[in-house]
Amino acid sequence: MDKFVIQGGNRLKGDIYVSGAKNSVVALLPATLLLDVPCIIENVPDISDVKICLTILEELGATVEKLREGTYRISTVDVTSTEVPAELARKMRASYYFLGALLGRSHRAVAAMPGGCNLGERPIDQHLLAFESLGAETMLIKKIDNDGTAYIDAVELKAETLYGSTVSLNVVSVGATMNAILAAVKADGTTVIENCAREPHIVDLANFLNYMGAHISGAGTHKIIVEGVQKLIGNDALEGSVEERTYAVVPDQIEAGTFMVAAAATRGDVLIHGVIPHHMKDIAERLVECGVTVEEVESDDEVCIRVSVSENRRLRPTNIKTEPYPGFPTDMQPQMAALLCIVDGQSNISEQVWEDRFRYVAELRLMGAQINTTHDGAIIFGVPGLHGAKVKACDLRAGAAMIIAGLAADGTTEITDIHHIERGYSNIVEKLRGIGADMKRISED
Ligand code: EPU
Description:
Layout lengths: L2 E5 L5 E5 L4 H10 L7 E4 L5 H13 L2 E6 L2 E5 L10 H4 L7 H10 L1 E5 L12 H9 L3 E8 L5 E9 L7 E3 L5 H11 L5 E5 L5 H12 L3 E3 L5 E5 L17 E4 L4 H13 L3 E5 L7 H9 L3 E7 L2 E7 L11 E2 L11 H8 L5 E5 L10 H6 L3 E4 L3 E5 L8 E3 L3 H13 L3 E5 L2 H4 L5 H6 L4 E5 L3
Parallel strand pairs: 2-14, 3-13, 9-10, 17-18, 21-22
Antiparallel strand pairs: 1-22, 1-23, 3-5, 4-5, 6-8, 7-8, 10-12, 11-12, 14-16, 15-16, 18-20, 19-20
Helix pairs in contact: 1-2, 1-4, 1-7, 4-6, 5-6, 8-10, 8-12, 10-12
The protein binds uridine-diphosphate-2(N-acetylglucosaminyl) butyric acid (EPU).
């Protein structure tokens, strides 16, 4: 089994670069199915979820060319299939974006229920509500498991025509907001999506589609308006031309936040490049409450974030409540918890998005953390330090928390189940080694 081995105790120091956002690129790649011309996407992170998305595109009939590291030319003009291969759909959560994109493109889509991190119940009722609001018919394909219990195995969507309409989401959902946009972009008429999520990746999807000719306004607010268009060809002047549009994926807010917390936990001094500072506001505020110095610094015409803590400084506790953007991101909750294990005093975490995002607590306890969990939260009693241990990455962000804990701990930490981490962090070992981490990846068959 592959694992990361970390020798803790090094202060992280130096420059680190953020990759393109996982939760954006996993929507942009399916969105290429809506285009009537090829396009080039840059700043694509080297993560396994991207590999799965690209394989799905190819299986559907798209042409994917890697032009250089992180840059792909994608042509979906010859795609005829409307069925996402089931094994691939089950490998990641974001495969549900192929439902919206294929429905928008071909008025038919079939996909197995998505996989991804186990964070408790992960329904897709709001996605289906969006599709149905636009006139699609939903069929849930059921199967019986070994215990005789019926479960939903796959979803089939069909529509004669998709009509612009009002989509009133009952829950603020990133995925349902993205899927509503994907299905509405080429619908007949105007769609109003209410109670939208506002995450940076939603704005990125809208920017990408608008750049290719869509008419989407309001992304980043609670109400998004999509005026349906017939074609997405970059712009009218480009029709018939060989010129292709190039779009760069937005920087990953959560990867940047993970580096910020890793710098703080190791009492380091790290300059984070390729970050959008206003995306990091809430994370930065919590770190500052702990006594960490967080500054915006200009470096080579770019605004970076510098995170530093003097070597022997003890940090203070803080309280966290996860919320949809612009609140504190649930995807930073485990990493922040790892830091709060080693501050002076008691911190409280309230998890408001996922019902089961504390499975990492048992692993942190193996390293000496003192944490009590409640039905939707955790109380962390800071200890002077953690010690290395053999732990596992229960899911993607839980794995990031284990890395942070391992970097800050005394001794050696071995992290197994690292495939979860590699779903979402591009070249994590090389990047952290570049700022002084003693960390290696060991492959064992
Ligand atoms: N929800 C419903 N019905 C739905 C959809 C969601 O009740 O149809 C509920 C969920 O159960 C949850 C809440 O709404 O309680 C929010 O879920 P959301 O739909 O926003 O989550 P998601 O789109 O499935 C994305 C990210 C997650 C991230 C959440 C919240 C992707 C591929 N995944 O998931 O990322 O935690 O938004 O920000 O974009 C991660 O990167 O580690 C990760 C889990």
